[in-house]
């Protein structure tokens, strides 16, 4: 990505800046600590060659950054944006739900029917939470939902009863 | 709105002038206000046309274009089902616009059956952008556009016209014919 290349370039330029400041301060000429007869400073040939090598790498990093050469014309842009693989495909797996008549996807539940079940379940859950009072108070028995004018049968002997004051919905078969 | 009489035979000079006194009416909405003179008995029945739009939708015009392109030429029911099962943000908005337009058609534009409509034109346009600052590193900043778009739709009563599917071979044949029909102009 151009951002990492930019960061590398920035890092390298900072390094070079530091090096040039170090040289200007005169801290790079490490000669012998004691007085010695001879040239005071060590030969700087490797330093100058290093400097020459630094220059091409500085220029190289500019050439390495990819940039668009020409402006993409609107015709070229349109060809790319309106290519059939980018257009939205028409879905052919939609069919009417046999229960309510709204449309649904073939492999999915009907959204309308699911929503109506979800609403009833939310009311039942609210009632259960009122019955329990707080978290982690679930009894260790099964629950059964009874609607108006319904009595618990023999199968519902040891179960917790959740009352709902409306008649049983046609889709809730128990 | 007597000055907005649309007539196929005569075009008065006055109708070309910008004479609208209202500030809110824009061109697309004004197309709903044209009143044609009563048709003769031998003329074919003019199908009802309903123009509807929604302005300044918080969505990109390029992304909205794909949805507009999807529903072009479909019946309104087919368009509504396709949009219902599309996961894009604009699909919900376009569906609302289509339902509003269908409602308008039945109530105000004398359309008998609400399913007897098809989408003749549907396209998106650029709305007014808000500008914000996007902060970059090192004190640099960019100007961020908060994009908005308009969505326009034209419903026409009747069965959608069948579009001839052109094969690649036909297109190539046409191109070669065009090349063959070229002549040298201003020649002897």
From TrEMBL, chain A:
Source taxon at top rank: Eukaryota
Family in the record: Belongs to the bacterial ribosomal protein bL32 family.
Name used for this protein in its record: Large ribosomal subunit protein bL32m
GO molecular function, a single term: structural constituent of ribosome
Function field: Component of the mitochondrial large ribosomal subunit (mt-LSU). The mitochondrial ribosome (mitoribosome) is a large ribonucleoprotein complex responsible for the synthesis of proteins inside mitochondria.
Single GO cellular component term: mitochondrial large ribosomal subunit
Keyword Cell division attributed: no
Keyword set includes Ribosomal protein: yes
Organism for this UniProt entry: Culter alburnus
Subcellular location: Mitochondrion
InterPro entries reported for this sequence: Mitoribosomal_protein_bL32, Ribosomal_bL32, Ribosomal_zn-bd
Record's keyword terms, sorted: Mitochondrion, Ribonucleoprotein, Ribosomal protein, Transit peptide
GO process annotations (BP): translation
Chief location category: mitochondrion
Chain segments annotated as transmembrane: none
From TrEMBL, chain B:
Residue intervals passing through the bilayer: none
Any one GO biological process: translation
Localization, UniProt: Mitochondrion
Gene Ontology CC: mitochondrial large ribosomal subunit
InterPro entries noted in UniProt: Ribosomal_uL22, Ribosomal_uL22_bac/org-type, Ribosomal_uL22_sf
Alphabetized UniProt keyword annotations: Mitochondrion, Ribonucleoprotein, Ribosomal protein, Transit peptide
GO molecular function: structural constituent of ribosome
PANTHER family: CHLOROPLAST 50S RIBOSOMAL PROTEIN L22-RELATED, LARGE RIBOSOMAL SUBUNIT PROTEIN UL22M
The family this protein is said to belong to: Belongs to the universal ribosomal protein uL22 family.
Protein name: Large ribosomal subunit protein uL22m
């Amino acid at each position: 990505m151009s951002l990492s290349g930019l960061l590398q370039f920035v890092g390298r330029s900072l390094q070079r800046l530091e090096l040039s400041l170090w040289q200007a301060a005169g801290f790079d000429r490490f000669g012998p600590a004691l007085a010695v007869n001879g040239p005071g400073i060590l030969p700087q040939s490797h330093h100058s060659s290093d400097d020459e090598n630094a220059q091409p790498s500085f220029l190289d990093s500019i050439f390495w950054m990819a940039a668009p050469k020409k402006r993409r014309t609107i015709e070229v842009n349109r060809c790319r944006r309106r290519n059939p693989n980018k257009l939205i495909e028409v879905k052919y797996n939609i069919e009417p739900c046999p229960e309510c008549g709204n449309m649904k996807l073939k492999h999915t539940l009907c959204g309308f029917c699911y929503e109506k079940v979800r609403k009833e379940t939310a009311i039942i859950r609210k009632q259960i939470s009122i019955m329990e009072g707080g978290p982690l108070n679930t009894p260790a028995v099964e629950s059964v939902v009874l609607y108006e004018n319904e009595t618990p049968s023999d199968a519902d002997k040891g179960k917790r009863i959740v009352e709902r004051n409306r008649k049983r919905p046609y889709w809730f078969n128990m | 709105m007597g000055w907005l009489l649309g007539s196929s035979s005569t075009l008065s000079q006055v109708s070309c002038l910008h004479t609208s006194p209202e500030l809110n009416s824009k061109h697309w909405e004004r197309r709903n206000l044209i009143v044609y003179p009563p048709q003769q008995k031998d003329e074919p029945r003019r199908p009802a046309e309903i123009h509807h739009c929604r302005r300044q939708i918080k969505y990109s015009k390029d992304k909205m274009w794909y949805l507009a392109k999807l529903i072009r030429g479909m019946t309104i029911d087919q368009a509504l089902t396709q949009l219902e099962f599309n996961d894009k943000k604009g699909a919900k908005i376009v569906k609302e616009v289509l339902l509003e337009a269908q409602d308008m058609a039945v109530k105000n534009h004398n359309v008998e059956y609400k399913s007897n409509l098809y989408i003749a034109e549907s396209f998106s346009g650029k709305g007014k952008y808000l500008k914000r600052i996007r902060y970059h590193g090192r004190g640099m900043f960019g100007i961020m556009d908060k994009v908005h778009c308009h969505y326009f739709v034209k419903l026409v009563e009747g069965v959608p016209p069948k579009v001839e599917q052109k094969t690649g071979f036909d297109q190539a044949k046409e191109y070669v014919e065009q090349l063959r029909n070229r002549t040298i102009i201003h020649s002897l």
